[in-house]
Amino acid sequence: MTRTRTAVAVAMAFSAPAWADHQLGDDTNARMLGTITVTGGRPTSLPTQIPTVIEGTTREQIEATVNATDAEDALKYLPSLVVRKRYIGDYNHAVLATRASGTGNSARSMVFADGIPLSNLLGNGATFAPRWGMVSPEEIDRVDVLYGPFSAAYPGNSVGAVVDYVTRVPDKFEAHIKLGGAYSHFDQYSSSSTPSANQVDMSLGGRNGDWSWWLSASRMHSVGQALTFGNRLLSAGTVGNAGTPVTGAVPDLNPSNQPWWLVGGATIYDTTQEQAKLKIAYDFTPTIRATYILGAWNNSTYGSVDSYLRDRNGLPVYGGRVNIAGRVYNLDSPSPALAPTQNDITHTMQGLSVKSHTGGVFDWEVSGSLYDYAKDTLRTPIVSTNPATAAPYWLPLGTPPSVFGAPGRTTDMNGTGWNTLKLAGTWRPTGSAEGVGAHVVDFGAQQDTAKLRTQVSNTADWFSGPALTPFSQFNGNTRLQSLYAQDTWRFAPDWKTTLGLRFEDWKAYGGQLGSAATLLGFPERHQNDISPKAAIAWQANGDWLLKASVGRAVRYPTVSELYQGQILGNTIINNNPLLKPEKSWTTELTAERDTRNWGVDGLLRATLFFERTQDALYSQTSANNITTIQNVDAIRTKGLELAFNGYDVGIKGLELGGSLTLADSEITANTGFPASVGKQQPRVPRVRAALLATYRPDANWSYTFGARYSGTQYGTLDNSDPNGATYTGFSKYFVTDIRVRYRIDRQWSAAVGIDNLNNDKYWAFHPYPQRTFVAELKFDL
Fold first, then answer.
1. Where is the TonB-dependent receptor plug domain (predicted)?
2. Is 368 in contact with 419 (CB distance < 8 Å)?
3. In angstroms, how far is CA 749 from the centroid of its own chain?
4. What is the pLDDT of residues 235-290, one digit of tens each?
């Protein structure tokens, strides 16, 4: 088998890990010591010379194997990664989980697109998901993932993983259009609906002399399933005959196995998203290129409700005092059980970089980026029904317009965003990265600034009225200034090592918390830390490659974690002004085996990983019953990750890949919540697994079967939520997917697929999508 054929074949296999772009065949030096040789497409921006675990996938693989409706779908089958995507177009809860971090720890991973941060490091949790909408699946050229904090070029938020999306820049004129659609049926409690979506993606680009350009636009409209369910604990009801007698409430058990009533489905999103991207590159010389990127993303989402409750006349009941089976419940207090929402967003991002890429003695880069919340407004009602009519405020049930509007609140985040500045260089003293004695020295200076602006106001009409009077305010800023250097040295024919050091100076300032009458400031915070990194690789022979990595990561508190609390009089209370950053030491031991001598053209990887985290940042309830962000003293995680990718496995044209992750993540010390000691870290299951098989009988057809599994997990620090198969629970799951793609001719292709073929009903606080049918038609010029 030739090197070219093997490189292409393995690159098309599942998950395309670091070695998937190696030139295999007879030249074993091409994959020696874990470095990546990119054989096609634009190279990743990740530091691929570091001998550690990097996985990835290419545009061709995504098209053939994944029913990709959102950018995060490209990560679906990569080892140990899970994205908590609840519906097509999920913009505010699609958090990335990694080996030792669950879907509640969004600040423990980083996501970039062409070097521009998409990670929302203003907070840590479900509502701070990466801004996936800034990338459409059609513009992806490749995606790569660096596991762990082993590169000095990234801050402590890289402790879980760094995801790098590389989007297209063509070298000749090309144009593309794709039409896609999805349909499913959702059935849970008494909610029954038919979620659906339709999409159109258009792009074109080309190169004219020293200029190259790319223009893309996409529009998606989706209607999702109920994501939240109004509920009241059985024990919260008062025995008696008061309230409106209703039927239809669904009895169930909550995650702690306490009886409760489900009274309706809510947060039924009707979402329209529009995205546009302009990319322009100019080559000053054959080795110096300037690139400018401008992106815009619009999102309009209305979250409706569906009440299960019916009065004596069979009419739906949305709020007020109701009587369920002889007990009285208030559906409006302490907060509405069923309340709609309206969210309107316009975000923009810009990036400018000038880079040299000689591959010689010295290369350099100057880059900056800006992400801006130009508009970000959330509207909610204060109560669910009109006391004069008992009708819901948000549904036009024949009530006069004068009473249709309801008081509510608007949350305006205009002025929120982040920006970065980077100066970097690469020095190769010998003029090459190859050969014994060769060094590759990377160094740089960075500044990352984040600012959060949140103004909550009262309004007379929650749906469309102007903000009238202030209700609360929440502001703050963080700045991280960093210096880093790392040296990758081939000190012997079969050995390579990387040593790195990162210095970080962190500052939190401008923190403010306000009520309607008072705006108080927080004191500034300042701290600096040093994080060492090291990695080594040994090519034991032509078949075996052994690697080891270790790195320290310091994950500083985000604005929303640090500036918390309540106002009492003229004092901020229930906050922790001494909140510490997370400090993690992570270690990897990896063995990679070229399996051709076993009769299978592929690679097998086994990685042992260890992580010890001090002062982990979690929300927990203290002894005086106050729930705030606090430090968990120590969490220890150890595990094993196995990954395999093979080509022509038993049958010509069959590509087979998969991964298995075993993790034991335990809270070993927590003075603030002793009951959690010895318990499993929230949302980190003991077992995760993925399998992907693709059969290509010829150049036109591909048939793919995928499967994903996650074991038992918990949502609480003390694991007091054993019932995961319910609303607000975290369940195990087994999900299968299929996809068939046919290339009709050189320009036309079509694909159909089914996600969650076996219709597993599983949860991550909210319900995941049930069986979903997907179809697409694409034209490439």
1. 50-162
2. yes
3. 29
4. 999 999 999 999 999 999 999 999 999 999 999 999 999 999 999 999 999 999 99
Nearest to 116 by CA among 422, 444, 424, 501: 422
Domain boundaries along the sequence of the chain: 3-520+533-780
Q: Is 75 within 8 Å of 169 (Cβ atoms)?
A: no
66 vs 72, 461, 706, 760, CA distance in Å?
A: 11, 43, 9, 19
Say whether 157 sits in a helix, a strand or coil: helix
| CA-based R_g, the chain, Å | 27
Q: What pLDDT was estimated at residue 387?
A: 60
335 contact partners, CB below 8 Å, separation of at least 6: none
Count of residues making up the chain: 781
Q: Which tokens hold the place of 641? A: 């990750």
3-state secondary structure of 234: helix
Q: 241: burial class by Cβ within 10 Å (0-12, 13-18, 19+)?
A: exposed
Q: CA–CA distance from 512 to each of 381, 411, 454, 476, 608 (Å)?
A: 25, 16, 10, 6, 44
Secondary structure of the chain: what % helix, strand, coil (to 5)? 10, 55, 35
As a three-state string, the secondary structure of 715-772 is: CCCCCCCCCCCCCCCECCEEEEEEEEEEECCCCEEEEEEEECCCCCCCEECEECCCCE
H-helix or E-strand spanning residue 8: helix 3-11
Is pLDDT larger for residue 410 or for residue 398?
Answer: 410
pLDDT in tens, 498-525: 999 999 999 999 999 998 888 999 999 9
Q: Which residues contact 155 (CB under 8 A, 6 or more apart)?
A: 110, 446, 448, 480, 482, 502, 504, 553, 554, 555
Contact yes or no for 594/17 (Cβ under 8 A): no
With vertex at residue 238, the alpha carbon angle to CA 232 and CA 242, rounded to the nearest 5 degrees, is 105
- The Cβ of residue 416 has, within 10 Å, a number of other Cβ atoms equal to 21
Cα separation, 569 vs 414, in Å, equals 28
Instruction: Specify which residues 297 forms β-bridges with.
Output: 275, 347
Give the E-state strand segments of 16-102 in sequence order.
54-58, 82-83, 96-97
The two three-digit tokens of residue 270, written as one number: 């009707």
Using CA atoms, how far apart are residues 606 and 608, in angstroms rounded to an integer?
7
Q: What is the separation, in whole angstroms, between the first and last Cα of the chain? A: 32
Query: Which of 376, 443, 444 is closest to 412 using CA atoms?
Result: 376
Lateral strand order in the sheet of 110-113: 54-58, 140-147, 161-167, 110-113, 116-117
- Tell me the percentage of the chain whose pLDDT exceeds 90: 77
CA 98 to chain centre: 10
Question: Cα(751)–Cα(146) distance, rounded to whole angstroms?
Answer: 30
Task: State the DSSP code for 48.
Answer: T
Can you tell me the distance from the alpha carbon of 14 to that of 18, in angstroms, rounded to the nearest whole number? Answer: 12
- β partners of residue 307: 264
CA atoms of 694 and 84, how far apart (whole Å): 25
pLDDT at 405: 65
**pLDDT of 393:** 60
Q: 758, 735 in Cβ contact below 8 A?
A: yes
Nearest CA to 579 among 610, 611, 622?
Answer: 622
Vertex 555: Cα angle to 549 and 561 (nearest 5):
155
Task: List Cα–Cα distances, 517 to 262, 337, 470, 510, 557, in angstroms.
Answer: 37, 28, 8, 19, 28
Q: Please name every residue paired with 643 in a beta bridge, in sequence order, or none if there are none.
A: 605, 659
Is 95 strand, coil or helix?
A: coil
Q: Using one digit for the tens of pLDDT, what is the confidence trace for 716-743?
A: 999 999 999 999 999 999 999 999 999 9
3-class SS at 711?
A: coil
pTM: 0.91
Whether residue 768 is predicted with pLDDT greater than 80 in this model: the reply is yes
pLDDT at 254: 97
Find, among 728, 749, 729, the residue nearest to 739 by Cα.
749
